[in-house]
Amino acid sequence: MSPPVFLLGVQLALLLLGGALVAWLGLGVLAAPDPFRDGVLGLGLFLLLQGLEALFARLFPRSFRSAEALHRELGRLLRRSGLGPREALLLSLLSALGEEVFFRGAVQGLLVRHLGAWGVGAQALVFALFHPAPRSALAYTLFTGVAGLLFGLAFLLSGSLVPGILAHFLHNAKSFAELLGSGE
């Protein structure tokens, strides 16, 4: 199985499992959808992630460079495996949907029921652990945890997964575009 197919499978599994858990547990993920609010919040969240990435590059330069080197290697592997722009967009969308439905919809929904607002932080920790990195690139896992916290807060405040899905999709699409465009 090629790496792109494997990654698509993992994200599809997260989407299906998360969706099933959300439905089974009766967790609301679109309590009050508002296209304008969700769009503005999603774009704001994406810009916040961009700023956070720049901040991490300054605060943890060695670790950030190590994470970038790992991403470049991943990009080479994915390109050699046949990942093109269409597949990258599909993977960006499926990962945004799968991870938001699973981590924010199901995991956070369940944890907030039992832990209150602390469930948002607990979900962010689980999300970070789902994105491991070697010790030399630990800033990546830390960044992912903070991103998970921001996605979780957006969901908690809006009652909608749409802002997180939008921001997550844009962030992943930008990352894949950089990976595919590096051509190394």
Automatic annotation (TrEMBL):
Taxonomic superkingdom: Bacteria
Keyword entries, A-Z: Hydrolase, Membrane, Protease, Transmembrane, Transmembrane helix
Signal peptide: none
Hydrolase found in the keyword field: yes
Molecular function, one GO term: endopeptidase activity
Domain CAAX prenyl protease 2/Lysostaphin resistance protein A-like: 88-173
TM region(s), chain numbering: 41-60, 110-130, 137-157
GO BP: any one term: proteolysis
The protein's name: CAAX protease
Organism: Thermus filiformis
